[in-house]
Specification:
By secondary structure, the chain is α+β, with helices and mostly antiparallel strands. It has 4 domains: about 1-95, Rossmann fold; about 125-185; about 200-330, ATP-grasp fold, B domain (D-amino Acid Aminotransferase, Chain A, domain 1, 2-Layer Sandwich), CATH 3.30.470.20; about 335-429, Phosphoribosylglycinamide synthetase, C-terminal domain (Glycinamide Ribonucleotide Synthetase, Chain A, domain 4, Alpha-Beta Complex), CATH 3.90.600.10. Helix content is about 30%, strand content about 25%. The protein is built from 14 helices and 24 strands. The chain has a 5-stranded parallel beta sheet with strand order 3-2-1-4-5, sandwiched between helices. Helix 1 (about 10-20) packs parallel to helix 10 (about 300-305) and helix 7 (about 125-135) runs antiparallel to helix 8. The structure holds adenosine monophosphate and glycine (GLY).
Length: about 425
Amino acid sequence: MHVLIVGNGGREHALAWKIAQSPRVERVYVAPGNAGTAQLAVNVNLSPMDFTGLIDFARKNHIGLTVVGPEAPLAAGIVDAFQAAKLRIFGPSKAAAQLEGSKVFCKNLLRSADVPTADYHVFNDPIEAMGFVNERYGEEDELAPLVVKADGLAAGKGVIVCQRRDEVLEAIDRIAFHREFGDAGDQIVIEERLEGPEASVLAITDGRTILTLPAAQDHKPAYDLDRGPNTGGMGAYSPTPVVDDQRMRWIEEHVLVPTVHAMKRGRTPFRGVLYAGLMLTRQGPRVLEYNVRFGDPECQPILMRLQGDLVDVLEATVDGRLDEIDGLHWDPRPAVCVVMASEGYPGDYDKGHPIRGLDQAAELPDVKVFHAGTRMDNGQVVTDGGRVLGVTAMGDSIAQAKLQAYTAVKCIRWSGAWCRKDIADKAIG
Ligand code: AMP
Ligand code: GLY
């Protein structure tokens, strides 16, 4: 079979790496891919948003399965477009992808399904939102532990966590009047600010059967000890001790199952990866958000541990027969992924720096260097994005996996390369 993967990040390199291992897969294409995917697949110079081009390519190259990495094409309806063209594709429909594409849709669904989440209010009118805040949090009480969210997709940036009333008002101003996130700010969600460790629980579902993957923890802030601006994710590890078996069963029962049922009842059945971003509060786990795809970088450590054929699982999901899959099997060893980034990220950065030491890193046991923002330039791998590499390693313990990942990181260098030094420390104590 020929498989097409849509996207160009570390997640897509990990997907291509895993899918290429399937004995049933003859050829893997990645659109547009990066220098890492080029080593095990054929890169296709098409944008993930060019549905016509992708469908045309899939037809001409006898693609038996397309797998979508990022959220933007899912929210724009790539799955519906492929299905209308009678092509098999893994991912949720446009209607189901609203779970990530619209925070209002997500919160309303959570409320109707009785899934635990932060209390919230939705506003179409920013003046009303400001009035609400001023009324609830009067002059003398400056504290207002609230989170202000732009409704639509904002590349992970449309969430502003606040502590004081003036911060909340400024957040509303930025979203609604300065339109920092464009149309995504047409509606605003204001919700209570929760506290606790965060965890990512991903599941594959065909709309009826749910296969839960081991929990992971992302590291969103740029710098050590969770300081600095938010990023797409500076590292991840899996499994995480903050979600033990008992808690995982609770999350399945109280979060995943009611969500999948509510999606079905609402005539937007969910097929694909359902990714719950959770906060583990003292009152129990609460859903912060849903994503409708593999997390990046969570995908890298998770897929490194997955045993068996991912393609069987993806196909069974597309065909609505996930109940035929006899569970998922995992390497018991934990995996840790450290993201190496360009100088300046998540702000402005430049590109094109030659990357050295990739071969030495690849020689280390239990290490896989997934590429994210890279491209080939005259036979040389150069930087081409903010998050450049996801250096991933397995070990007998989380501490050993971390050590091995950082041993590999030390082999790799380019001008301005940096990474967080504390990935997975939350699990090590
Ligand atoms: P989201 O994109 O909704 O996951 O939000 C991004 C980040 O904002 C999360 O990973 C949390 O760190 C933080 N966040 C979102 N909602 C809340 C909340 N209700 N309380 C506290 N922090 C939150
Ligand atoms: N790692 C967070 C995300 O993929 O959205």
